[in-house]
Design brief:
The protein contains no helices and 26 strands. The protein has 349 residues and is mainly β. The strands form seven sheets. A four-stranded antiparallel sheet has the order 3-4-5-6, with no helix packed on it. A four-stranded antiparallel sheet has the order 7-8-9-10, with no helix packed on it.
Length: 349
């Protein structure tokens, strides 16, 4: 399945990002499931500690642990109890307090302050994890009673890492994205095979990757253009985790919603692999890469986020660079020219 639009999230490990969003008016719906936060004054700003960009919506967690979403809401992915599009942030229904949220294609998941996972929005693939396949416009608890450190929403499947470093996935198992063998769609969490202890797992469109507590990257799912990164292309997919063929250790990895993967090593260097015909790999070439390749320029990055066909990364000094497809100006360099090596994001003109 091809992704509808780029989406990626700012990882919860990123230092608090304060984003002032002025609310000029309030929407009309109050949640019947619990008390909502006090009404905001017309000029009061929301300070966000974490943000996540989905397919056609965005969500964030404020410094006070309240979750807000905005954008398209056709499947209830904003979680406010409606399917009304919101042009400004609206509070997620109920009294839950969140640590992090992750916006997928047309749904959202989050981890509450008690480490319980909740999801809402489009759920036809079982990706909400509550044992059902219906859409939900308010948060529903992920089944199984697991305590999660983080969850990651993809296109039609979700993965999470528990406080005990165990990885679980649920939803559509297209080409093995759940990492639990040849099984059908799962509407409740299933353990990822291999017994690895994960620090982070990233759910993409048709593949998934994770970083273990020993800084080793594993990927599983579709390997149509080398996005699993083990040099052994598997047309039918990989149904269990495969170790990425590189000796370097990684701090983070992102599967994105495209057929490629990028990560940042423990030495803060960027590497990408998989489909690169539009420059997504960032090594100065427009080729497929079945093994990780260093991103050109040798810069050190503290954060990286992969979209559908482009990637952006941030240095420790806060300077942003992007590469890959630029049809809609998503690289932020003032052009619509594709770039196969990092280009600096420029200021507003």
């Amino acid at each position: 399945m091809e992704p509808c639009a780029p989406r990626r999230r700012i990882p919860p490990s990123t230092p608090a990002l304060l984003l002032a969003l002025t609310l000029a008016c309030r929407d009309d719906t109050a949640s019947p499931t619990g008390p909502e936060p006090p009404a905001l004054a017309a000029t009061q700003a929301l300070a966000f500690s974490q943000l996540s960009a989905g397919g056609r919506h965005t969500c964030g967690v404020t410094a006070g642990h309240r979750a807000y979403c905005w954008g398209l809401n056709v499947a209830g992915q904003l979680g406010d109890g409606t399917t009304i599009r919101r042009l400004r942030p609206v509070a997620v229904a109920g009294a839950l307090e969140f640590r992090t949220v992750s916006a997928g294609l047309d749904y959202t998941c989050g981890v509450a302050t008690d480490n319980r996972a909740y999801c809402w929005g489009q759920g036809g693939a079982g990706n909400l994890g509550n044992g059902a396949t219906s859409n939900r416009s308010r948060p529903v608890a992920v089944a199984g009673g697991h305590l999660f450190r983080r969850v990651d929403a993809g296109e039609a499947h979700t993965c999470g890492v528990t406080t005990a470093d165990a990885a679980y996935c649920w939803g559509f198992n297209d080409r093995g994205v759940l990492g639990a063998g040849i099984i059908p769609r799962q509407s409740t969490p299933v353990a990822v095979s291999g017994g690895h202890r994960f620090r982070q797992v990233a759910a993409g469109a048709t593949h998934t990757c994770g970083v273990t507590t020993s800084d080793v990257v594993y990927c599983w799912g579709s390997d149509s253009v080398g996005q699993v990164g083990d040099s052994a292309q598997a047309a039918g997919g990989n149904f269990t985790p495969r170790r990425v063929s590189i000796s370097r250790r990684f701090r983070l990895v992102d599967a994105g919603l495209g057929a490629f993967t990028c990560g940042v090593s423990t030495a803060d260097k960027a590497f990408c692999w998989g489909g690169g015909r539009n420059g997504e790999i960032g090594d100065g070439k427009d080729y497929l890469r079945f093994l990780p390749r260093a991103v050109a320029g040798g810069r050190s990055f503290s954060q990286m986020t992969a979209g559908a066909a482009h990637t952006c990364a941030r240095t420790a000094a806060g300077v942003a660079f992007c590469w890959g497809t630029n049809e809609y100006g998503q690289l932020g360099d003032g052009t619509t020219t594709n770039r196969n090596r990092p280009t600096r994001v420029t200021g507003a003109m």
